[in-house]
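dumping this here so i dont lose it
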């Protein structure tokens, strides 16, 4: 049996499957198209998809290329039966060159599969739960390469996401029968028809308050975006011609699809392809057969197209908004966005997006992704919304642009008039409307001070980081998005000390392919032009979940299945990322960093996956760097005590002080009940930092501190005195720390650290360090 190259199977197959999603009209058609494509690209005799039914014990053949077509929908098996059932039971890949010799083999006469020997089964996963199996079979015995199984695993994730999306839509369809759903949709329709009255300046005392989505300070005139949903008055339905209305809605759909492609392109150019990926989801909804059939059904009942559209869109919005999962609730915003643009195209007028003629503060009930794509970002100084979603796609895009944002400000659209002067303090979560003179003067003073300080620090961004006596210090940047690169470079970062790769994963609808990751990492590496970039592998779990791969419920997720533990339990995903990192290293100096390592077994397992990744790339003839520096995050107490042994396995350490302090002191800094116990200057914390610094020095290993400790002068004083010379931080802090270092001598830092380490009370330590700063730096 001829084998296909992993390269041929990989990127083009994944891209073609993405295209099939848009071309197919329902789940069955999509699955049939996928099995045909995969069978052809893998040169396999059979490709089949089995899905687990609602009872979670029965697998049913849902699509196949190679088995008898009549067996689709007819062949079922229980979890205890067959090799396919074994894949589900164990939640892992199962492969054998002679399936009939396996003790779990089961023969189904109706499939005609007795002629096939090799079997490869890959689980379809939804948040650590198996929902089906992708099966490959061949007539001749065959073993699949690591490259092929890696790509097939990525395909399996795509298939799983398609199934999940289809089932989600089916769930919404079923809810239509519930009277409560209809009542809610009707009530929403009535509310949408109420006329919007023009507001006047509030003149209220005190600020409006909300939740900070992105910090910052801004002032200017209010750009108030009144959202009517874009729907025309649909009560006048006399003389409805269904054929004419169907033609109108089809034209609106086609125009909206074209607009969606344009919006995706615009956002990809302004920000990045990852930021634009939300519009893929919009295209899928616009192509969803059930969505289109609902609209058609309403029109055939002699309702006008606008009425049909509003009723169906409201129905979907209501269903999404009632879901428990925060990610799924946020999909209501996507449905609103699609509905508004469809309605505008249906009525023949432009979508009601503000045309901003001057800089100001955007005020809205909700800012949808297409708003952020269409608005002139140069004219938006800040964003305030009534919606409280901090992680909506629009807010993510605002963060990428560095625009201060406040969410969850109740009633702000009616309380702020267009062009009313406002002050947005997104540091403290306040919005001042028509502020009195005293408030204006105070914020003018704060803005002036901020500007002056910014100008003062600009010169330090261009200077090297050195102490008063000439000791060099390395200051790198923590980044998470491509848009962070410009901020880091502007502030004089010497490369990247911590690239958090989970953020690109979080804003997507599924796992990025190796090629997608490679292009992203290469772009970052090239952007720093020879300066090192430390790429941390995927760190999910705890407070970071993926919408398509959430960890199972845990009583204490911060001490559960997270970070490298998740990666090692999902080696295909892990290996794919490592392959992309090794490929990106061809474009500049790259270091690879593994999070939350607690012992030798984990780091040795990581080395095994690196070796597998090298073998895969070598077999495919893909260019990569054979050897790059490998490091571990020291962020759990066990890693501190194992530092001496870990140093023999790695090239460098990264001190993750945020987590390390929390674990050391059993204090969640985000929990108001115990955050007073979170103390970076606790004697125990300082002793373990000193211990790690000594091990790194003795074994000549690199050591970089990545955490908020690096942004505080008293902490830097202590850390520098311990012997730490490399720090990674949020980029805007770098010029300030450079300025501070130029007034600090190394002798002062070493003497201060030595004395502070002998103290047993954190208050005493803090008071002493502040005295040193006051005496030597004039109260820095």
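and the seq i came up w/
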């Amino acid at each position: 049996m001829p084998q296909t190259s992993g390269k041929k199977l990989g990127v083009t197959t994944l891209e073609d499957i993405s295209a099939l999603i848009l071309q197919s009209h329902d789940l069955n058609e999509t699955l049939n198209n996928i099995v045909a494509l995969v069978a052809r690209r893998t040169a396999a005799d059979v490709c089949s998809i089995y899905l687990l039914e609602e009872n979670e014990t029965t697998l049913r053949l849902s699509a196949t290329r190679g088995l008898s077509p009549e067996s689709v929908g007819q062949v079922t098996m229980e979890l205890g039966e067959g090799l396919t059932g074994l894949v589900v039971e164990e939640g892992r890949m199962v492969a054998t060159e002679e399936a009939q010799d396996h003790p779990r083999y089961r023969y189904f006469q109706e499939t005609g599969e007795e002629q096939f020997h090799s079997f490869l089964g890959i689980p379809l996963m939804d948040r650590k739960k198996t929902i089906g199996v992708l099966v490959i079979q061949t007539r001749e015995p065959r073993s699949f390469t690591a490259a092929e199984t890696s790509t097939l695993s990525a395909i399996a994730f795509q298939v799983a996401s398609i199934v999940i999306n289809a089932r989600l839509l089916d769930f919404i369809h079923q809810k239509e029968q519930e009277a409560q759903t209809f009542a809610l949709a009707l009530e929403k329709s009535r509310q949408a028809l109420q006329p919007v009255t023009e507001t006047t300046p509030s003149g209220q005392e005190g600020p409006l308050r909300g939740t900070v989505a992105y910090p910052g300070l801004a002032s200017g005139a209010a750009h108030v975006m009144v959202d009517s949903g874009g729907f025309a008055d649909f009560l006048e339905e006399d003389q409805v011609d269904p054929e004419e209305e169907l033609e109108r809605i089809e034209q609106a759909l086609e125009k909206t699809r074209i607009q969606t492609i344009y919006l995706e392109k615009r956002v990809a150019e302004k920000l990045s392809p990852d930021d634009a990926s939300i519009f893929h989801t919009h295209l899928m909804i616009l192509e969803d057969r059930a969505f289109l059939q609902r609209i058609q059904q309403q029109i055939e009942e002699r309702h006008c197209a606008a009425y049909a559209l509003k009723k169906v869109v409201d129905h979907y919005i209501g269903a999404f908004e009632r879901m428990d999962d925060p990610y799924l609730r946020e999909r209501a915003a996507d449905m609103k966005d699609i509905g508004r643009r469809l309605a505008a195209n249906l009525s023949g007028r432009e979508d009601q997006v503000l045309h901003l003629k001057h800089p100001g503060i955007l005020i809205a009930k909700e800012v949808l992704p297409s708003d952020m794509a269409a608005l002139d970002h140069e004219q938006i100084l800040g964003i305030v919304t009534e919606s409280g979603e901090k992680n909506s796609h629009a807010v993510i895009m605002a963060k990428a642009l560095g625009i201060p944002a406040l969410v969850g400000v109740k009633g702000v659209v009616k309380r702020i008039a267009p062009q009313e002067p406002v002050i947005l303090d997104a540091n403290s979560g306040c919005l001042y409307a028509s502020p009195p003179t005293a408030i204006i003067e105070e914020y003018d003073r704060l803005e002036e001070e901020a500007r002056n300080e910014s100008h003062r620090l600009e010169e330090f961004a261009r200077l090297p980081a050195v102490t008063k006596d000439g000791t060099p210090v390395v200051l790198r940047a923590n980044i998470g998005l491509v848009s962070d690169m410009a901020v880091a470079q502007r502030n004089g970062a010497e490369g990247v000390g911590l690239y958090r790769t989970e953020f690109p994963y979080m804003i997507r609808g599924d796992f990025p392919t190796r090629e997608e990751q490679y292009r992203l990492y290469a772009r970052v590496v090239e952007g720093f032009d020879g300066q090192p970039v430390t790429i941390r592998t995927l760190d999910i779990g705890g407070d970071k979940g993926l919408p398509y791969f959430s960890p199972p419920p845990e009583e204490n997720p911060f001490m559960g299945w997270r970070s490298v533990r998740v990666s090692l339990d999902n080696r295909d995903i892990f290996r794919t990322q490592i392959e992309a990192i090794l490929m990106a290293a061809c474009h500049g100096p790259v270091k690879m960093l593994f999070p939350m390592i607690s012992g030798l077994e984990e780091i040795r397992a990581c080395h095994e996956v690196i070796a597998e990744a090298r073998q895969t790339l070598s077999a495919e003839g893909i260019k990569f760097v054979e050897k790059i520096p490998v490091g571990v995050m020291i962020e759990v107490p066990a890693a501190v005590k194992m530092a001496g042994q870990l140093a023999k396995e790695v090239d460098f350490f990264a001190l993750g002080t945020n987590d390390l302090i929390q674990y050391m002191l059993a204090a969640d800094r985000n929990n108001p009940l115990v955050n007073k116990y979170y103390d970076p200057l606790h004697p125990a914390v300082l002793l373990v930092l000193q211990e790690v610094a000594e091990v790194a020095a003795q074994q000549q290993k690199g050591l970089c501190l990545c955490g908020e400790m690096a942004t505080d002068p008293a902490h830097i004083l202590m850390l520098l005195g311990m012997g730490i010379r490399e720090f990674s931080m949020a980029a805007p802090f770098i010029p300030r720390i450079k300025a501070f270092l130029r007034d600090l001598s190394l002798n002062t830092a070493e003497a201060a650290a030595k004395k502070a380490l002998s103290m047993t009370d954190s208050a005493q330590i803090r008071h002493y360090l502040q005295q040193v700063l006051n005496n030597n730096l004039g109260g820095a």
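The mean pLDDT is 81.
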